[in-house]
Structure prediction request, 380 residues.
Amino acid sequence: MYPKVKPALARAWRDMQTVQFGVTPAHAVVLGPVDTATGALIDRIDGTRGMDLLRADASGMGLPDGQADELVRRLAGAGLLDDATAGGPRAQAVRKRPEALERLAPDLGSLSLVHREPGGDLRGMAARRAIRVQVRGSGRVGALIAAVLAGAGVGGVDVLDGGRVEPADVAPGGLGAGSVGRLRAEAAGKLVRESAPARAPRAGEGGGPEPGLALVVVAPRDGLQAWAPDPDTAAGWVATGIPHLYAGVLEGTGLVGPLVLPGATACAGCMERDRVDLDPAWPRMLVQWRSAHRRRADAACDLGLSTAVAGLAAAHALSFLDGELPASTASRWEAALPALHWEPNPLRAHPDCPCGASADGPAALERSGGGSGADRPGGP
Prediction:
């Protein structure tokens, strides 16, 4: 064992006997009592020393026998300790890609805060590498989501879209000006490959079958299709149990969610039925809107808002894939220009929808946990 205090949490002394690891309340940990000599020993738990050397260092500082072992146990119990040898065979395989690790260092630091056991960061990254995600749409929102997921270590990111790249699709971090006129699927595939920190695993690599889809991210260029998704389009995902997350921008309003867990949370059919219950004119208007929208060249899609939507949607997707249920589960988050206050809009499963979420939703949601990560603690 080569223990290392997690570098992702900044350290400060609250007083002469109390150390705080971390600044923000979400992940900060307070440890005490800690005397000055023990504090100095903490500085040496940096992954370069095994336990024998740490015991020798503790003895040289005048600390009693067993103090080094006790300190390591305390740090591990508080979720503050990593181990350069932990994580299992898949984590070791990630360690053998130093060029990728340099790119992914900030992401590994973030994963170490979520998966607090030693080696949890690399175990989580190895799980991401084995995941396959489909992004439907390669406009200002979809292309950037795909690039972020690939850049964050997701091994398989497929982008589906038709037609050719238009000037309005170009956005920083997404499709570049040089892609205008190219097939959208081809340009998006190139973007994904360039964004990835390492070569994506080939189908069936490692002797196993090609992984199934862990998540579909629906980010259509026409924001209306994210605001009022077509139940027929989603029917296949609902029937096969594939989780899917909606994201887009419509008329100056950005939306992230809902994350649909088939059989557990409201689906596109539930949303449509609920709107009809609230507004009988909805079906008539929706037909008119869908006919008029057919990818209008002048559709409003503010660049700052679309970038924020793409970033938040990618973060929610990664949270789910890492084993958590993000706040977009069964809820759509909306922000409208110019104030941009993000507000949740909880979505209920409709009792008349054949998806079955209304009847079995609470129990199914409890069973669902998160995505394809190592552990499934659940919860938003």
